[in-house]
Amino acid sequence: MSEEMRSTCLADEHRALGARMVPFAGWEMPVQYKGIIEEVLAVRGQAGAFDISHMGRVILGGAGATALLDRLTTNHVASLEIGAGHYSMLTNEGGGIIDDIIVYRTGQSEFLVVVNASNTEKDLAWMRRHAGADVAITDTSDATGMVAVQGPEALAAAGRVLGQSLEGLPRFGVASFEWRQVTVTACRTGYTGEDGVEVIVDAQESAVLWRALLAAGVAPCGLGARDALRVEAGYPLYGHEIDDEHGPVGAMLMWAVCMDKGDFVGRDAIAEARLEAPAERLVGLVAAGRVVPRQGYTIWSADECVGTVTSGAFSPMRGCGIAMGYLRPPHHVRGGSVQMDVRGRRHELQVIPKKELLLPKGAPVA
Amino acid sequence: MATPEGLLYSKTHEWVRVLDDVAEIGITDHAQAELGDVVYLDLPEVGRTLAYDDIFGAVESVKAVSDLYSPLSGDVVEINAEAASATDLVNSDPYGQGWMVRLRMTRPEELQQLLTEEQYAAFAAESAH
């Protein structure tokens, strides 16, 4: 790698905790502290904290901000109320996904856009290329840190630490308030399938926040747990389920596309894709045993290759391997049985909708 | 990190315990710590003939999969079915209950190529950087 590895404002905290650090999207990030399974269980059972400072935080302001975002993203920005947010995508002219993002409306003409770490530069360049003089685009990624607090006890723990009740914040809502003489922004979002908040704080105060969360009983969790949690939740990740060549139709993300809001970049291609029978569909897959599906494994039905694994994980909640992958119809239907090739051996996979990978609360655990 | 004496080691992080003409093989404490929580073992069938450096299986943790290389030539006489179903034994007791296969050695002279405890500890410390 030619470029210097970047560190987040919390890197010293991770090292002090004995985290195992790995390169990820150009950043040196903690992959685990104590163990991935233990960290997954902490998030499903109580609360866990993740350093997500490597993600991009972009503020768009000005009279043209709403129109620009409605032109570049798939969801309906004009209908967002102040203090609300939504999942969305930046799409290219071909209908491929440049990135999946969350857009929050923080003011009448001000938006916060949170983007994937690996795509921050690309997204910024794309937005700046399309922006007129009536939109100011500010990259606040370096000036701030971001911590996700996730789990059934996350809201209460984060609220205690921040001295602010967060219960009133709606799902996908955003609110800013003063904490230790700096402005903190709390978003009721996350990518784990659990309730919680993502907190943006001045980079210099981020370690204080991190330590206070840990002191409040929140478990530090790394990228390993984060990935397993998001696969369990059936959430796509750029570079795995989605990329510039693959659009929202096959990825089953049309719920985040507003086709009747007017024109936007990629709309025509998406409309066309919607009329065709999709070549492949993203599904959830449950392995018969503990073997872990990995990105790139081929999926078979008898002698026919019918798909590919895009993400896999060991699910501590199910006690077996789980995955997402693209399957060619008609193999994508619920309840279907396919096999993946692991080192020359076939392993059974059951097909389910990706939303059903995460067992409902209270379901018997394996 | 513990590296017991009396065992021999490979540069691919397997250990060997010699029991007469049988070699018991597992992965080292260093290897299990690098992998993290082990969730699946791919072990060979009893009766399979292995040559030195053959891939005889794989160990999967939550985050990675790592091939297992045979440090010796021989025939598989036993696999550890208990560790295959309770894979956390590989993490908690890598040199004991976490053993993986037993080989009847066909070229015991290959033992001389393996590392001693001291040599392996130095090698593992170096490869950790």
Could you write a compact summary of the structure shown?
With about 375 residues, chain A is an alpha+beta fold.
Structure characterization notes:
The complex is a heterodimer of chains A (366) and B (129). In chain A, the strands form four sheets. In chain A, strands 11-12-13-10-4-14 form a six-stranded mixed sheet. Chain A has a six-stranded antiparallel barrel with strand order 15-18-17-16-19-20. In chain A, strands 6-7-8-5-9 form a five-stranded antiparallel sheet, with helices on one face. The termini of chain A are far apart. Chain A has three domains: 6-50 and 144-170 and 185-232, 2-Layer Sandwich (Gyrase A, domain 2); 57-139, Alpha-Beta Plaits (2-Layer Sandwich), CATH 3.30.70; 277-355, Elongation Factor Tu (Ef-tu), domain 3 (Beta Barrel), CATH 2.40.30.110. In chain A, a hairpin with a 2-residue loop joins β11 and β12. In chain A, α2 packs across α7. Chain A has eight helices and 20 strands. Chain A is globular and about 65 Å long. With 366 residues, chain A is of the alpha+beta class. By secondary structure, chain B is α+β, with helices and mostly antiparallel strands. Chain B has a domain at 23-108: OB fold (Dihydrolipoamide Acetyltransferase, E2P) (Beta Barrel). Chain B is built from four helices and nine strands, in the order βββαβββββααβα. Chain B has helices spanning 29-35, 81-85, 88-92, 117-127, and strands at residues 8-9, 14-19, 22-27, 38-42, 49-50, 55-61, 65-69, 74-79, 101-105. In chain B, the strands form two sheets. In chain B, strands 1-2-3-9-8-5 form a six-stranded antiparallel sheet. Chain B is globular and about 35 Å long. Chain B starts with 7 loop residues before the first strand and ends with a helix. Classes of the chains: A alpha+beta (366), B alpha+beta (129). Chain A binds chain B through residues 20, 31-32, 35-37, 224, 228, 289-292, 294, 313-314, 321, 342-343, 345, and chain B through 36-37, 39-40, 42, 58, 60-63, 65, 87.
